[in-house]
Design goal:
alpha/beta; elongated; disordered C terminus; five-stranded parallel sheet; 14 helices; 39% helix; 343 residues; Rossmann fold; two-stranded antiparallel ribbon
């Protein structure tokens, strides 16, 4: 049973306070934060790459907070959330009467971010028609509002983010190559949660504390089987998915115990993973323990694949990559020997 208490980590406490919302101490995450510290003091354009839900906005805010622009505006815009016919106005503003419905002058996000940082999320969804105008702002630090011939000069740092493959988009003609090279000055790649499993325990405790306090509930315990299920799960929605499921679990919690919010893993035995070591070590330990528990049986409803929530063929492929062979006989030890049999 994992007892929930206020999250304390020596490594976390020693971290720069600008990283206070970024939880975890895995090598993959620490590498990202080192890169952030390198680029933040400069005025260079940064593009943050990573899957949806990995926390790209938190990284953008950390870059701003660690820069000389901290204390100046941090303005954000999700390029995929604004309709095309309004996006240009949102970015660059408009004058009264510039188009039907423009009843007053409006400042755009670039003008609002003057002297500070603008964060353009999902930059890969920026329409081709607007990309030359963004390129001009990056190169010349100037623009015109819609309906005006007056040029406005600004001093803005751009941090962009996307979950899409911009290089592939350039190759397919969906993204301008000149804008891509202007954006790709300093790329920062945020790893998916499955590549930083060491952080799942700390993230879980953090979110339990946040939501329990917000809801006025008391959650004292997390069953070890639930925590192991979290560590074993691949989290296709990344940290955002974990956060949402923890919120659901806290709502449903009774008697101070956090229930398992992963329906796909309920009723299956998820075995403990070593708290230290590489992801390869974790996967190997999990598979070996499942094989031990099933007497080496891989397929079938009681087999190791079912216990791990995997297809039989996927487990065999994983075993081959990790050098794990089906045992010729069951041994008390945690390892197996024998020939390369996977049936």
């Amino acid at each position: 049973m994992v007892w929930v208490e206020r999250l304390r980590s020596g490594d976390q406490d020693e971290r720069d306070p600008q990283f206070f919302q970024i939880v975890g101490n895995s090598p993959a995450l620490e590498h990202v934060l080192v890169e952030v510290k390198r680029v933040a003091p400069t005025d260079s354009t940064v593009v943050i790459l990573g899957e949806t839900g990995t926390g790209k906005e938190l990284i953008a805010r950390a870059i701003h907070n660690l820069s000389a622009r901290c204390g100046h505006p941090f303005v954000k815009l999700n390029c995929s959330a604004i309709p095309f016919d309004l996006l240009e106005s949102e970015l660059f503003g408009h004058e009264k009467g510039a188009f039907t419905g423009a009843v007053a002058q409006k400042l755009g996000r670039f003008e609002m971010a003057d002297t500070g940082t603008i964060f353009l999320d999902e930059i890969g969804d920026l329409p081709l028609a607007l990309q030359p105008k963004l390129l001009r702002v990056l190169q010349e630090q100037e623009f015109e509002r819609l309906g005006s011939g007056r040029t406005h000069h600004i001093n803005v740092r751009l941090v962009a983010a996307t979950h899409r493959d911009l290089a592939q988009m350039v190759a397919s003609g969906e993204f301008r190559s000149d804008l891509y090279y202007r954006l790709n000055v300093f790329p920062v790649v945020v790893p998916p949660l499955r590549k930083r499993r060491e952080d799942i325990r700390q993230l879980t405790l953090h979110f339990v504390e946040v939501f329990a306090r917000r809801m006025g509930k008391h959650v004292y315990q997390i069953p070890e089987t639930t925590m192991n299920a979290f560590i074993a799960y691949d989290w296709p929605g990344n940290v955002r998915e974990l956060q949402n499921l923890i919120e659901r679990a806290v709502i449903r919690s009774d008697n101070g115990v956090l229930p398992n919010p992963l329906p796909a893993l309920q009723g299956k035995t998820v075995l403990p993973i070593a708290s230290r070591g590489t992801l390869r070590d974790h996967e190997r330990a999990l598979i070996l323990q499942a094989l031990n528990a099933t007497g080496g049986m891989i397929g079938g409803p009681q087999g190791a694949a079912a216990r791990l929530g995997m297809k039989r063929t996927s487990l065999i492929t994983k075993m081959q990559k990790l050098g794990i062979y089906r045992p010729r006989y069951k041994r008390p030890e945690s390892e197996f020997d024998g020939g390369p049999e996977y049936a």
